Amino acid sequence: MPPLRPIPSPLTLRPCQPIPNLSKRAFTLSARRPGYHDTVKNLLIGAHTRVIYQGFTGRVATGNAKDSLAYGTNIVGGVTPGKEGEHLGLPLLPNLRRAASELKPDATAVFVAAPQCGKAIEEAIEAEIPLIVSVAEHIPLHDIMRVMSILKTQSKSRLVGANAPGIIAPIGNCRIGFQPLPTFAPGHIGIVAKSGTLSYETVASITRSGLGQSLCIGMGGDIIAGTNMVDALRVFESDPNTEGIVLVGEVGGRAEEDAAEWIVEYHRRVSKPKPIAALVGGMEAPEGRIMGHAGAWRGKGERTAREKYGILQKAGVTMVDHPENFGGVMKTLLSQIGRNVYKIVGHAQAQQQRRGYHTIRRRPSPTHHQHPAQMAQQKRFLLLSPSQSSSPLQPYLSQVPGVTLSSDPAPPDSHHLGVTVSRSARSPTLITSPSTTSSERLRNFPYDWREGPSPSLIEAAIQHMQLDAAPPAARAQAAGLLKALSTMYREKEAVTLSGSVSINSQGNLALHQPSIILQFDDAAYRSCKRQEDIHSLRQKSQEVPEELEAEDHGIVFIKLQDPKANIGTLVNGAGLAMNTLDALTLHSGHATNFLDTGGKATAATVKKSFELILQDARVKVIFVNIFGGLTDGGMIAEGILLAFREVDMKNVPVVVRIRGTNEDKGQKIIAESGLSLEAFDGFAEAARRVVELANR
């Protein structure tokens, strides 16, 4: 890598302060380049990649760096503000300016807590570090929109995350993130995934098949991802080490649809395309609920997980219902296009032997289980009821003379308008529609977070509402309302602000209160104590008691309303929990709940999970489905035994599937417990037994 140019002083932004009104400027000092999309090449990491850490001396970063060094990652030092010397025998520098100049990194692992993470990423952009990997959970949405606004002005730095497991190249033994090393093996399948746990089980299946992995990119489960599926596909297409591709998606956004469009075009222009298989989690996700990940929810006008499954399938992608099947599926696909699978497997095995492959059975050190986030799971969004909308809206509606707030339901000829987040554009967007009855007519008008919507963009959004016959005053009010909502969107750190409008008998615009959606980012308050006035409006008395109890223990629990439900589920990881519901349904099973123990699950967490599940009288059997990536299988087994000792299990049978990290230990503990537990390796056989017990 050539020497870096002098670096400007970092942007002055104290963590957890109100977001400043920044002028739009490019952070790079270099000559103008094509743009952020050209930085995908920076994702091709390997043995050559020089890695530094931000937050180097922190407990989690230290443990992670030790494991990555042992794996073979070329870590060259790190940064902790105000400290200088050595750490882990490597250079420790007090600021990123000096680290970039003296260590000449190709990548930085940002192990900085959510309140300071946005600032840390911006400093890395200023330093023109080619690859920035951010792993922290619960970074406020508007912090990331500001970061993406900056990234799109330059062509040097690429972001993976935030809230992502990171990126790992088993060929080259380079890990930047917290992926569980025992699961990975050098090989020839490229993987991009939203979910951490689903990606780990996918990786394990690919490893067991003998194919191994070339490059694995954790897209992350937040609303906005610095690197998405199309970015990953572009890298996999050009990577000579990648023979086949796996996509792991889920409910929420249109990343999978964008990927499908890219794949259709890829198949048109390439005579021998690489085979692609995919999974989409969340087909059984209830409407209007957030399924663990901040981005796992379906916005207005977005496709369901089932629809995205069909779109990918139509694009020529082979769809998989459970991640444990990916290994066999990829071997079949490679054979069908004439690739010598035995040769690919043999080459992968040679790579594994040469690089001292960590086997799936090897016990990792405790630091493998530490996630950078040090807080309980959060709701992530605050959704105010329409009756609560008047107070927060009024200061902004008063800026638009003539607009009234009507308590009447919206009439059939109403129009829709609002502001939300465009996941594809990675920015805020105006949303308008000439109708409130068809989501197909909803259109997005993305704009830069720092600049706000321009008058011409607002005019285009108004034109799409088809207000041509409306009085001039109503058109002007619609424009003013969009401008006011965009101001509120930023100032109050909203996720979605929208509603239905009509023209009243006086020729003025009426905003119908029953249709109003006011949705705010919970992380802004929980992580940074911003927007306290908004979050004080939360009405816990109106929420499900079990869900509130779970939240206090760092568990994500959603009570499902399926009238046929009789299976309680206990799963680690939001993506795996969603897929468990989906896959159970394929076996004619019906779950009473969604439960994600979280990445920091302990024996006590598992015990509390059983207590929550058993509060539901519908439960006839409990299915514990664990893939030990970051979560230790032995610890889960101990938690199950603790529950049997201290919780009234009400004679409810329990079926346990434990795979991954320390699976042998966990399975042995279950087998030798003497309790009425049934343990299985494969998901399908476990699911069949669960359904059999539920229907007995």
Q: What secondary-structure arrangement, pairings included, does this model have?
A:
Layout lengths: L50 E4 L4 H13 L3 E5 L5 E3 L2 E4 L2 H8 L3 E4 L3 H13 L4 E4 L6 H11 L6 E3 L5 E4 L4 E4 L8 E8 L2 H14 L3 E6 L10 H10 L5 E7 L4 H15 L6 E6 L23 H10 L3 E2 L6 H11 L4 H14 L26 E4 L5 H8 L6 E3 L8 E8 L4 E7 L9 E4 L8 H10 L7 H20 L2 E10 L5 E13 H7 L3 H4 L9 H8 L3 E4 L7 E5 L2 H13 L6 E4 L6 H12 L6 E8 L4 H14 L7 E7 L2 H9 L5 E4 L2 H13 L1
Parallel strand pairs: 1-2, 1-5, 2-4, 5-6, 6-7, 10-11, 10-12, 12-13, 13-14, 16-21, 23-25, 25-26, 26-27
Antiparallel strand pairs: 3-4, 8-9, 8-11, 15-21, 17-18, 17-20, 18-19, 20-21, 22-24
Structural key phrases:
alpha/beta, seven-stranded mixed sheet, 27 strands, about 35% helix
Describe what you observe in this structure.
The chain is α/β, with parallel strands linked by helices and 696 residues long. It has 21 helices and 27 strands. 34% of the residues lie in helices and 21% in strands.
